[in-house]
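Help!! Second protein's tokens look totally different from the first
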Amino acid sequence: MSVGTVALVVPDEIDLVSWDLYELTIPATVFGKPQPDLADPWYELRLCATGQRSGDAAPGFGLRTPYGLDDIVGADTVIVASVPEVCVDSAAPVPRELVTALRRAHAAGARMVSLCSGAFALAEAGLLDGRRATAHWMHTAALAERYPKVEVDDSVLYVDDGDVLTSAGMTAGLDLCLHLVRRDLGPHVANQLARRMVVPAHRPGGQAQFIDLSVPATDERGLTPVLEWARANLDRPLTIEDLARRAAVSPRTFYRRLQESTGTTPLQWLLNQRLGRAQTLLESTDLSVEKVAELSGLGTANNLRHHFLKQVGVTPSDYRRAFPRHPSAAAG
């Protein structure tokens, strides 16, 4: 998929309430603000309203835009950031005109994307049937019950199923939008854009939506130097004992402190870092899968494939094919 038109669907048959704006502004910011020094051309964003404001709607925000539902057909990417709350909480039907337009856009070859409750619109259109998909964890039970043909995963940040992608709510929508930029324009552009937005450059889609931390994720325990050293030495065989020794604590104390600070165990943390390194190498180099496995500390190509399939959901080769280096991207 190359850079092109992004149609952002805005549910305007009722006034927008303030808390709906968050998911709407994420794709508007990522795809609507030109970044000519990173890639030229950038995306062309169209805000496509689903209807007209009603005078007796709840207090909220209206939208002025020259684009309507007909304009999503022919777009390269269609994003549904949300549906009216009554479609989720009260099982009210998703507007029929929107469902029809989504089907037409998909049939025309558009890449279909939902953020948070927008998954209900894609599901109603039948675009998620037989596919793995996600939404905000507070809505996934309703999504699974209402659309039994959808394989709902309530644990992940986002799901990339090729031409149809879904994300959890709130900040996970930003993760998915940056993932789309990585697919389209390469990791350098996505990383620079994330830096400008002051957010992490890459959280893999398989990361958990919610981690119950008993204490704030801070570095009061002084783990940052040790973890930075570990990231710089992922190609080496690392153990909890190695990290604890550098932190000048016992392995048991290190285990407890890391889990308190990150919500995960040292072994899982190391695996996440190694998979992240492997993803970066697959995106930005032509190194063989065997070499990527070696440099990321996963040892063998078979081991890399095993963890990639389990955590990312695709093979390393398929993942690499999803990130062609775009000729218009700035050199890294």
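Here's the second one for comparison:
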Amino acid sequence: MAVPATMRAVEITKPGGPEVLAVCERRVPVPQAGQVLIEVAFAGVNRPDALQRAGAYAPPPSASPLPGLEAAGRIAAVGPGVAEWKVGDEVCALLPGGGYAEYALAPAAHALPVPKGMGLREAACLPETFFTVWTNVFERGGLTAGERFLVHGGSSGIGTTAIQLAHAFGARVFTTAGSAEKCTACLTLGAERAVNYREEDFVAVLKAEGGANLILDMVGGDYLPRNVQALADDGRLVQIAFLSGPKVELNFAQVMARRLTITGSTLRPQSDLAKARIARALRETVWPLIEAGRIAPVMDSEFPLAEAAAAHARIESSGHVGKIVLKVR
């Protein structure tokens, strides 16, 4: 595959709103040992991209400064020592950055084959959310069949993924969303109960069921003490973001008395080895479910690469249901 010297990309011209995203020309990166170069067809748009654009989520020192944490396309070149992929293979990959471009680098171990029967558009929506949900819900959170699981933001990319995976593995799934339409979408994905947080109190709903064994939250703020109230004894709370802020007053006496666990993680700073381990687990455990048609990304909208600013405005409006993608080529 002939690889050009330069490529189109979207850069962050300065910290700010969606309008600071601009199309630029960059040198095509060269894969180093253990890396692959992907000719990007589609790139996923995620909340961390918007945080990076706003200056609140700096990329690791070794990562591309361009936004974009997941993409799908074809292998254009492989670096030294890469044996598992060859030029022309269709893959989706978790990226350290740089997905908003015609070519992007990824560690070879963070790439996964495009599931059989799935297009590149849908495959671009798999890595960021599936890596995040798998590690936080099933590994860190320890969710098992029959447990009561509450995920906030059920209509988001993370939420729609978490609902489907938890349901597929036999959990009782509860979720929150901000409209009747979004609640209906969550129910169709496998949620047993979808709580419109504008009209109902999720704490009361979960308490009536005996409490949540596990909660996955990206809201933070005043949800933190309410989450603790909604947990069953010995319950676990996993925090993955703080859309409403990370600081709150919390009475930890009930955490001790009821043997609760509060934990959390972010994906991007984790080591390459940790992400490779997650990729292997997904390929072995989740990819067969995708190929069997039991799980699929929920698609919200598609924007051309040059309209990345509009895609960011869409995700920050919270009006979306599921994933947003950029069409790169």
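Reply: Different proteins will give different token patterns, so don't panic. The two ends are 16 Å apart (CA to CA).
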